[in-house]
Amino acid sequence: DIQMTQSPSTLSASLGDRVTITCRASQSISRWLAWYQQKPGKAPKLLIQRASSLESGVPSRFSGSGSGTEFTLTISSLQSDDFATYYCQQYSYFSTFGPGTKVEIK
Amino acid sequence: EVLLVDSGGGLVQPGGSLRLSCAASGFTFTDYWMSWVRQSPGKGLEWVANIKQDGSQQFYVDSVRGRFSISRDNAKNSVYLHMNSLRAEDTAVYYCARDLRYESYIFGHWGQGTLVTVSA
To answer: Which chain B residues contact residue A94 at CB under 8 A?
Structure first.
């Protein structure tokens, strides 16, 4: 099985901050990596697929990068709507999610 | 508009059974693989099972293989998760999810979730 880790587990930031979340896979997954945003009581929302392809309607302040085993999600200027939990997911071999990173208000 | 409506959750005793349903609308159901994904406080998000467009292939996470069964009724635009021999660790919110059109195991649309609680 492919294991996913994320860091940090919690991130405190202010409006306008640049935020970076790291995701690591236990083995190479090429670019088969997605990012989701989840708000309390809601289903996850797909933000990025294939490591860096933004889904339609997702603001351009979100970006993804990486390949192999290390990936990042960056929010260039944090907005109030961005306070949420973010999950990475590998889909190279079936599917595994990371444990999540909660972005909270500083 | 794509809509997935999950139902069927509830409280069940260990060893019991439950059937979850997902009613889909707003897209051509037979064009997509469909999945179930669950979320529990202890284990986070976990893909559970998926099923091919025509129902001819199904795949499962190891922890539910042999106990859960996924099926679909294309005439009713619905997908189901039949859960048997339920355990406490199966307690979670279960989401129906639609895979992307040309890629499986990545979920572009989700239902609202239905809570399954396994407890005596």
So the answer is: 47, 59, 61, 105
